[in-house]
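Researcher: Please generate the 3D structure of the following complex. Treat every line as part of one assembly.
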Amino acid sequence: MLQDTLQRGQQLTDSALDRLLPSETQRPASIHKAMRHSVFAGGKRLRPILCIESGRLIAGSVPVGIENLCAALEMLHTYSLIHDDLPALDNDDLRRGRPTSHKVFGEAIAILAGDALQTQAYEVLAGLQCSAEARVRMIEEIARRTGTVDGMIGGQVVDLEAEHTRPDLSTLEYIHRSKTAALITASVVSGGLFAGADEPAVTKLRSFGEAIGLAFQIVDDILDVTQSSAQLGKTAGKDSAAEKATYPALFGIEKSRQKAGELFKIASESLQLFGPRADTLKQLASFLVDRKH
Amino acid sequence: MLQDTLQRGQQLTDSALDRLLPSETQRPASIHKAMRHSVFAGGKRLRPILCIESGRLIAGSVPVGIENLCAALEMLHTYSLIHDDLPALDNDDLRRGRPTSHKVFGEAIAILAGDALQTQAYEVLAGLQCSAEARVRMIEEIARRTGTVDGMIGGQVVDLEAEHTRPDLSTLEYIHRSKTAALITASVVSGGLFAGADEPAVTKLRSFGEAIGLAFQIVDDILDVTQSSAQLGKTAGKDSAAEKATYPALFGIEKSRQKAGELFKIASESLQLFGPRADTLKQLASFLVDRKH
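Model: Done. Output below.
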């Protein structure tokens, strides 16, 4: 059942991405190869899956055309990974078990491929099959949640600046809320908006997204400490090597697990308004908190 | 008269940028400092000025709220400059007479500042004071013209790959049309769309933008050869040092000037439909072709 949800989300997203991204032979070929290399690198399509299930919760069935929104969200996520991995930032050679963009295509193309994925995401969002009002609202939400003030880029900046320091809890929470939870929240909210959610529903979806997004990052940090590189498909132990700000570093594994559990509870409670229709989203949340890689 | 047009465009754009960009004290301060460093580095605000005059041509007076569109266009232009200047790309230390972003803030923040300016541009575009339909149409136009297929990033990629080769005319035209003329065209077209231009008017504005955008790049390349760094406010002679693909390198100065003149003629003719209302845009075009820095 959950397996079906995951698989459907992945398939819808992958086929939309394949349709929307320029082919590898389209001039200039190098950038299109680089965009596809990172987009089709075995990502779990977590944000798209949350988006679809949020849309399905509101509409009663998977809304027609939501897969293009999913593709745009995954383009934005992938752009952030390509840039995060650059030598000037996290300097990572491996991502999802494959060499990172700059290792394969060089730094110049990696920078431009990230830029291009961001650009194309907005082109796709502007052309979604829903009202123009819903589209501009989604674009504002997504841009804000990936921006500097309390969005993804802001989280990345504070994360970089917190390396080799021992940040306080408020800094750590800012990093996680902004760097990871913000785009997850935008995915859940935009799925609801695409399906025509009203304001009370959007508010509940937002609370759900924020809680599950933060839980997701805490679990990620726990796995970085407890799992091997082979299990994770990326370099394990990187956080402590770089003296990154993480929950396990600040509170230890046990307290971090507890915190993730509390956030899961908040996430579930946010969905009470929707009754049993929200069961799949709750299952997804539980899967994200209990995962092993 | 032309001086007034230029000054009004600069003032409207600068004050919108100052209002829209987070302040230098807003957390995380480093990225906001970096964004403002490059945005307020003495740019000529050429794209915004073309956008305003295009909107004024359609609406009869400067359309209320167009300055936010101008700010978004300038954010996109500035993001592309920050990334172009990076060591992995053009490796330029000087831009508009000031040290480039990565020289002041380091490469990581420079990459993220470019990313953030792109992100914020779309947030601003989604919130413009015009119909949601016009906003999504502008976003699609601007994203496509700054993307990979025949937009700004595509031009940058082919430009990088053409270094140290002797590209043919079709490659050179692709580079110039995509790297420079595309965003100039989007500026002219989006100004018209903001003011409510109908399809025939948009088509004419597009032809004007394409011709004047290409002429602008040819003149830029001529100035790189004929002017000093002090006159240009950036490192002169960079193109030939890097064996960049340029019109002067392929055809010599005289033929390049001729080509720019022909394009100016095409640009002027595109505006015939509008009669004397188009005089200011024509004046602007003439100024861009005849400029000395």
